[in-house]
């Protein structure tokens, strides 16, 4: 099976699917989304087959393809995966069909006085995004990586800008410009690498394996590292380069938000591991303390801001920034355990936060508001939804038994021996995580019904229908939301005050999860639980690649793969 | 006194020039001797035959390296490559000129240019289907001048070419059918400032002649090597550069650009933005590399500073524009800066990627910007083209295809990968970094990010905003504009995805003779 170009197929299939969907007339929306689902499931199948064809103990890069692309620049269309990249491809394969299912009944934000817009473009952009995301992880040519890295912005820009919330224009442009600025600075470093390779190897190249052999002057390394690092730190995002994410995460349609924090932002941390560390080992070692300061500051700062958020999507975005701090801590601690934990974290965060975003989206679809204070007492009416919400939240705060625990634990025990102070500070983030997750859960799901769940006896009761879900109309401004006549005035600072239901109001009927929604959340719930108790397959998949990366920067891998915490086996694979 | 000997001319090597100038002369005769009713189709045909013939001739001549006309003209790789580029851009521009389906009066050119704007006669003629067909021979002369400009191996020929390409452009700028006053203002402004710039060039020429004793580029180089650079020569070079940079609309010699681009008929603007840029940079490259390549200290700091100024001015002032044509004008100024970044990439002993990269960038930029201006001609309201940005709001809902194409061109101008703009930028930045110009490239990257903002703003307007109730309509283009848009869009895509062949061509053509 190894001679099948799996990676090329994984790029081409969604791209062709996107073209096919885009060619459909706007009225054929149903066909468009069916096609999108079919294509994304096919890509999932391809991802699984790719994993089967991959030998974790084999060469570092496998399933390689290389075709000369632009000979004058020394650029090859070179693809190949190591365990880390493959885990990201699996994540893409899983998340995209889930996102298609979660967005099944989304509609664009209605505009007064104008006919409803078609969602066909949404499905086309989504598939194109999938194709480019696969490319960015599968590229082994730095130039090709850069091309995918930048091209990826365009579909996401249109997903946010065309199908997002009320403030979508601002969010889309901010997203694009931040990423583009980072990318352009990286371009300078990419060209710089080429020039160095030209002088050392006699022929300029962008091939990762060749560039890894270069002996770069430490000062030049620092400059080149800075270019790559800035791009990845904006992408990942690390504090203080993070300010675009809460806006984009809040304004993006749920499907876009899941892919944004679930996969797109992982390109940043993936880039640290794949490019910053192996290509610039000296600079990485010298500058690691500064990166760790940013990482740990992000863990605490973003968690504190998350506690203070009133908008659920913004809250989830801030939690992601905190999680990216953990991943960066794991990567720049320079131990095999911590780096393995960071890679697992990248995968698990995609699953857990993806589920959290999707569940939040389901709540919003029922209530039409993103504000926490507009909800209360949902659990009594939607027990299933509440259960999944809780599970997603617990996975997000890394409770033992969920997948995230494994990765967070590995990061912390792995980082402690080399970076005790940073690790101890980072643990504070765990406490804050419990605070923001549980507070949100409690306010939305428990207590007496309030906010949008209350309607006047004679008021229009058009909110509830679960499958009627507008993305997140009304973007939360309280007074602006039509139909929310039952929200009473409250005193300043009284956001958490328990509100008595006005006498004339009745509680809106809210449907629990529909069959489609159950089908959407089930795979993610299953992954959270399975990987929570048995993460070993994933660890085995990524360990060789992590060890290879660590040996690139001169860290002795120690010879054994880390065992999953709590498991009784030694975990050694050789 | 002996008889003056006629210089030896290699007619074959001059075939591209002969085609275009021949077409221009025939065009003038047609204007004089054929009835008005058949003039338009005949003129279009002649102009197209001239430009396409010139393009074919450059293809056939590929590989030629000779100096002819007693050393005054160099027919070499860069000259032929750029002549071919100019011929293609010229042919596409002529097609844009000939569009008759968009304007209700069936042409974007005025019926009679000499009638005072706003007079009774002018208003009568506004809806007349008469058209000033001199536009075609004028364009042919301009194209011929541009092609001569890139082959000029002699400062005097260079000056003659400069005038031959400029004078028709001054006139063409004033031929807009709508907004006559704006158009005439553009023509006068362009003429006055252009004449001023020509004077600078001429003065520089005189000083360089004084310092080196020759106007032949190769002799200048020899003189520079043997005698070293004198103050006289450096000042002369500076003045020459000023004259050329004016044509290339490089800041701080750019002040005419937005006004002229806005006032001129859009098809002419497209022509100026694309072809003039190619010609001007062709001359800049030849002057700096051939005559002063061995003494690059004389121009490197100057070009370095001009590149930074142009990128910053173009990107920053572009942010404040509310008119599509003015915005594209500032974009053209910023791109002139990026092109100069490529010019910096001249390595020691004439090596380095600078020449090939700059030539490749000229191809990509010319085709993309031509396409973008071509789309501007489609968006119209009752008063002609609707160029105010606010009128473009919600265009994606009126015409998804036009909005998609425009977004594609704008993303290419912003330099997003998988478009020709990115490959072009990459080529010039690589050339500059190889020459050690790190700070310049970082400035260029920051300027690219700033410029991306105003390109994106148009995309935002077209896609994410609601259309105004009385917004413009999108005209259905006739065959000529459709061809132009198809060719430019295809080129923008192909040069972004598979640029290998053209890059190789530029690389192999990047050797000057003389």
Automatic annotation (TrEMBL), chain A:
Using the UniProt annotation, give all residue ranges assigned to the region (Disordered).
457-487, 552-574
Any stretches that span the bilayer, and where are they?
6-27, 34-54, 84-104, 116-137, 143-163, 175-196, 223-245, 257-275, 287-308, 315-336, 342-364, 384-401, 421-441, 518-534
Which residues lie in coiled coils?
none
Extract the InterPro entries matched here: NADH_Q_OxRdtase_chainM/4, NADH_UbQ_OxRdtase, ND/Mrp_TM
* Entry protein name: NADH:ubiquinone oxidoreductase subunit M
Where do Basic and acidic residues bias regions lie?
A: 460-480
Compositionally biased region (Low complexity): 558-567
Q: Which is a GO BP term held by this UniProt record?
A: ATP synthesis coupled electron transport
Domain (NADH:quinone oxidoreductase/Mrp antiporter transmembrane) ranges: 139-432
- In which compartments does the protein localize? Endomembrane system; Membrane
Name the protein family.
Answer: Belongs to the complex I subunit 4 family.
The molecular function GO annotations come to: NADH dehydrogenase (ubiquinone) activity; NADH dehydrogenase activity; ubiquinone binding
> What do the Gene Ontology cellular component annotations say?
endomembrane system; membrane
Automatic annotation (TrEMBL), chain B:
> What gene, per UniProt, encodes this protein?
nuoN
Q: Where are the transmembrane segments?
A: 12-30, 42-60, 80-97, 131-149, 155-176, 188-209, 229-246, 267-289, 301-320, 327-347, 359-379, 400-418, 438-464, 476-498
Membrane disposition = Multi-pass membrane protein
Q: What's this protein's name?
A: NADH-quinone oxidoreductase subunit N
Q: Lineage from the top down?
A: Bacteria, Bacillati, Actinomycetota, Actinomycetes, Geodermatophilales
* Protein family (similarity comment): Belongs to the complex I subunit 2 family.
NADH:quinone oxidoreductase/Mrp antiporter transmembrane domain residues are: 152-450
The record's EC number reads: 7.1.1.-
- Indicate yes or no for the key word Translocase: yes
């Amino acid at each position: 099976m190894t001679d099948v170009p799996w990676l090329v197929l994984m790029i081409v299939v969604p791209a062709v699917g996107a073209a096919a969907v885009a060619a459909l007339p706007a009225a054929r929306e149903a066909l468009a989304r069916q096609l999108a689902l079919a294509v994304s499931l096919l890509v999932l199948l391809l991802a699984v087959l790719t994993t089967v064809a991959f030998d974790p103990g084999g060469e570092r890069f496998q399933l390689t393809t290389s075709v000369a692309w632009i000979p004058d620049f020394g650029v090859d269309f070179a693809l190949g995966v190591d365990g880390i990249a493959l885990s990201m491809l699996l994540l893409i394969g899983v998340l995209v069909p889930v996102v298609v299912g979660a967005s099944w009944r989304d509609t664009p934000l209605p505009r007064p006085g104008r006919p409803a817009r078609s969602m066909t473009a949404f499905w086309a952009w989504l598939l194109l995004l999938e194709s480019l995301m696969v490319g960015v992880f599968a590229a082994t040519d730095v130039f090709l990586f850069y091309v995918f890295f930048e091209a990826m912005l365009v579909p996401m820009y249109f997903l946010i800008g065309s199908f997002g919330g009320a403030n979508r224009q601002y969010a889309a442009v901010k997203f694009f410009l931040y990423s583009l600025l980072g990318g352009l600075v990286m371009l300078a470093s990419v060209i710089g690498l080429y020039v160095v390779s030209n002088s050392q190897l006699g022929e300029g190249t962008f091939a990762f394996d060749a560039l890894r052999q270069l002996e770069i002057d430490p000062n030049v390394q620092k400059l080149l590292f800075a270019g790559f690092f800035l791009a990845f730190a904006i992408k990942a995002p690390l504090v203080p380069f993070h300010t675009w994410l809460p806006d984009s995460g809040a304004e993006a349609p749920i499907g876009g938000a899941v892919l944004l924090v679930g996969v797109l932002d992982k390109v940043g941390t993936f880039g640290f591991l794949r490019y910053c560390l192996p290509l610039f080992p000296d600079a990485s070692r010298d500058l690691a303390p500064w990166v760790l300061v940013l990482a740990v500051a992000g863990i605490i700062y973003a968690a504190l801001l998350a506690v203070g958020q009133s908008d659920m999507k913004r809250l989830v975005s801030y939690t992601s920034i905190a999680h990216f701090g953990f991943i960066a801590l794991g990567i720049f601690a320079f131990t095999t355990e911590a780096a393995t934990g960071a890679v697992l974290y990248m995968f698990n965060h995609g699953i857990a936060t993806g589920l959290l975003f999707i569940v939040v989206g389901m709540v919003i679809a029922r209530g039409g508001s993103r504000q926490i204070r507009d909800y209360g007492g949902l659990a009594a009416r939607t027990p299933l939804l509440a259960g999944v919400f809780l599970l997603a939240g617990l996975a997000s705060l890394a409770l033992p038994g969920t997948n995230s625990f494994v990765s967070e634990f590995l990061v912390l025990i792995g980082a402690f021996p080399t970076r005790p102070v940073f690790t101890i500070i980072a643990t504070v983030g765990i406490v804050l995580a419990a605070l923001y997750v549980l507070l949100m859960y409690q306010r939305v799901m428990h207590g007496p019904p309030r906010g949008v769940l209350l309607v006047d006896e004679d008021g229009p009761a058009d909110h509830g229908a679960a499958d009627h879900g507008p993305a997140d109309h009304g973007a939360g401004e309280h007074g602006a939301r039509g139909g929310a006549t039952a929200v009473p005035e409250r005193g300043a600072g009284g956001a958490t005050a328990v509100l008595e239901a006005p006498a004339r109001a009745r509680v809106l009927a809210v449907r629990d999860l529909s069959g489609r929604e159950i089908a959407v959340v089930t795979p993610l719930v299953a992954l959270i639980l399975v990987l929570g108790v048995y993460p070993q397959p994933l660890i085995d998949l990524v360990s060789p690649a992590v060890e290879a990366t660590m040996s690139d920067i001169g860290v002795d891998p120690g010879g054994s793969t880390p065992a999953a915490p709590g498991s009784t086996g030694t975990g050694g694979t050789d | 006194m002996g008889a003056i000997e006629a210089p030896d001319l290699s007619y074959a090597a001059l075939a591209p020039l002969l085609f275009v100038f021949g077409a221009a002369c025939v065009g003038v005769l047609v204007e004089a001797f054929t009835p008005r009713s058949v003039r338009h189709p005949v003129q279009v045909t002649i102009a197209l035959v001239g430009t396409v013939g010139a393009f074919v001739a450059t293809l056939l001549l590929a590989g030629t390296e000779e100096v002819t006309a007693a050393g005054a003209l160099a027919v070499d790789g860069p000259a032929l490559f750029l002549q071919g580029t100019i011929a293609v851009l010229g042919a596409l521009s002529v097609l844009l000129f000939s569009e008759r389906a968009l304007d209700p009066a069936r042409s974007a050119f005025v019926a009679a240019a000499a009638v005072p704007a706003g007079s009774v006669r002018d208003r009568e003629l506004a809806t007349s289907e008469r058209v000033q067909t001199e536009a075609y021979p004028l364009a042919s002369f301009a194209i011929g001048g541009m092609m001569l400009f890139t082959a000029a191996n002699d400062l005097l020929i260079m000056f003659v070419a400069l005038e031959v390409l400029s004078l028709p452009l001054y006139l063409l700028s004033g031929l807009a059918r709508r907004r006559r006053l704006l158009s005439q203002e553009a023509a006068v402004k362009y003429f006055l400032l252009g004449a001023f710039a020509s004077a600078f060039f001429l003065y520089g020429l005189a000083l360089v002649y004084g310092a080196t004793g020759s106007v032949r580029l190769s002799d200048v180089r020899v003189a520079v090597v043997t005698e070293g650079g004198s103050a006289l020569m450096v000042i002369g070079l500076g003045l020459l550069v000023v004259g050329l940079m004016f044509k290339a609309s490089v800041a701080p010699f750019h002040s005419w650009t937005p006004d002229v681009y806005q006032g001129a008929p859009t098809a002419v603007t497209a022509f100026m933005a694309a072809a003039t840029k190619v010609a001007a940079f062709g001359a800049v490259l030849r002057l700096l590399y051939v005559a002063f390549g061995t003494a690059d200290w004389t121009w490197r700091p100057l070009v370095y500073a001009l590149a930074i100024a142009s990128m910053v001015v173009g990107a920053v002032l572009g942010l404040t524009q509310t008119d599509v044509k003015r915005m594209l004008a500032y974009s053209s100024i910023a791109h002139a800066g990026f092109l100069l970044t490529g010019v910096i990439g001249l390595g020691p002993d004439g090596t380095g990627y600078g020449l090939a990269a700059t030539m490749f960038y000229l191809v990509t930029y010319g085709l993309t910007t031509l396409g973008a201006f071509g789309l501007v001609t489609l968006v119209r309201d009752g008063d002609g083209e609707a160029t105010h940005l606010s009128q473009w709001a919600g265009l994606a809902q009126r015409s998804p295809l036009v909005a998609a194409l425009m977004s594609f061109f704008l993303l290419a101008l912003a330099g997003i990968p998988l478009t020709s703009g990115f490959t072009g930028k990459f080529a010039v930045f690589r050339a500059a970094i190889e020459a050690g110009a790190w700070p310049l490239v970082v400035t260029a990257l920051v300027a690219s990010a700033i410029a991306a903002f105003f390109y994106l703003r148009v995309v935002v307007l077209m896609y994410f905003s609601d259309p105004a109730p009385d917004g413009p309509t999108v005209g259905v283009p006739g065959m000529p504009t459709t061809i132009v848009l198809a060719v430019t869009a295809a080129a923008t895509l192909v040069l972004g995805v598979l640029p290998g062949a053209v890059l190789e061509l530029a690389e192999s053509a990047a050797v000057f003779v003389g």
